[in-house]
């Protein structure tokens, strides 16, 4: 390997996508978003059943670009769900893998995804890195209370894209990240809204299962009494309820699809059910932004909307209309997760940053 320009396979696992890139040093040679249909995702009883399909798709894509899956110097993956961690570069190790396999910190497709990457590194004798793990140690203590000591309030969120976006917004304001107060709403297949206070995320909704707004495929927070009754109704298994919350909730549950382009076309054709469901989702995102403005005591330099749904003008306009009294609203469609993963891994491989231990 050239330690200055290592060949890296970088992978990000979303609820409905696998994002992949091949980097030579800081140059991205190829990049792709592999989309998985809702029907395909729903056909898996657990996220672990996605392992083989995602591996096949990643390997096929790598081969289609003229590379072999075994020829990378380093494999870089977004992390699965972890205990609260300092942002930084980590080598994925057995302890992390155990937490992913036992789903100690929740169920998410990045748990098997990260194991997949780890298995590749192990098979080919190469390091496997992750950057800025999904759970942040910087939450305010009072923000970790849920309302019952048996149920802590975790905060798995889109750390990579939240931080990258907050940095873009700070730059636009002529400030450093450490000087700015930014609210970032990442609206993708999962939705997380973070309060970035002078370079630290001090409160954010947990993107996984039942916190914050509903999303294209997740329920977000639900009234808990009816949820308890549903769990004990005898109609659903534990796994089915988890799937209902995390894979088939939100727009998918209301409208039978999570595809924004298809839903927009239904709205254009006067589908009122679709219009109201989308307005409800946007309203919940706006309310979450309002909550984060309290976290920042009203001192909000900017609100930044990002993620795949930020491509959807209707949704961005609806949210903006609710929150524009708080601060300026900036929009950054898509995400910068692969770039952030590659840049972090490279800082370590070039000796500019030390590894953190999980
Ligand atoms: N131009 C568009 N118009 C409407 N909806 C869109 C558009 N582009 C993407 N979307 C919607 O955005 C959502 C996907 O967002 P994204 O690509 O961020 O998902 P992901 O990677 O699976 O999830 P996450 O961002 O939570 O990791 C889907 O519901 C998709 O239909
Ligand atoms: C890992 C948390 C990001 C998401 O909500 O999917």
Task: Write a concise keyword list for the protein shown above.
358 residues, alpha/beta, Nucleotidyltransferase, domain 5, 2 domains, six-stranded mixed β-sheet, 12 helices, binds adenosine-5'-triphosphate, binds butanoic acid, kinase, butyrate kinase activity, Aliphatic_acid_kinase_CS, EC 2.7.2.7, ATP-binding
Q: How would you describe this structure to a colleague?
A:
With 358 residues, this protein is α/β, with parallel strands linked by helices. It folds into two domains: 7-137 and 337-349, 2-Layer Sandwich (Nucleotidyltransferase, domain 5); 159-333, ATPase, nucleotide binding domain (Nucleotidyltransferase, domain 5, 2-Layer Sandwich), CATH 3.30.420. The chain is built from twelve helices and eleven strands. The strands form two sheets. It has a six-stranded mixed beta sheet. The protein has a five-stranded mixed beta sheet with strand order 9-8-7-10-11, sandwiched between helices. The structure holds adenosine-5'-triphosphate and butanoic acid. Adenosine-5'-triphosphate binds at residues 14-17, 188-190, 216, 258-261, 264, 307-309, 311-312, 335. Residues 14-17, 188-190, 216, 258-261, 264, 307-309, 311-312, 335 line the site of adenosine-5'-triphosphate.
> CATH homologous superfamily of the largest domain, by name?
ATPase, nucleotide binding domain
> Largest sheet at a glance?
6 strands, mixed
Just give the CATH class of the largest domain: Alpha Beta
**What general outline do the C-alpha atoms trace?**
globular
Mean pLDDT: 95
CATH topology of the largest domain: Nucleotidyltransferase, domain 5
Contiguous low-pLDDT stretches (5 residues minimum) are none
Number of domains: 2
How many β-strands, per DSSP? Answer: 11
Through-space gap between termini = 26 Å
Oligomeric state, counting identical vs distinct chains? single chain
| Cα radius of gyration in angstroms | 20 Å
| Helix percent band | 25-40%
Bound molecules: adenosine-5'-triphosphate, butanoic acid
User: What is the number of helices?
Assistant: 12
Keywords: ATP-binding, Cytoplasm, Kinase, Nucleotide-binding, Transferase
InterPro entries: Aliphatic_acid_kin_short-chain, Aliphatic_acid_kinase_CS, ATPase_NBD, Butyrate_kin
Catalytic activity: butanoate + ATP = butanoyl phosphate + ADP
Main location: cytoplasm
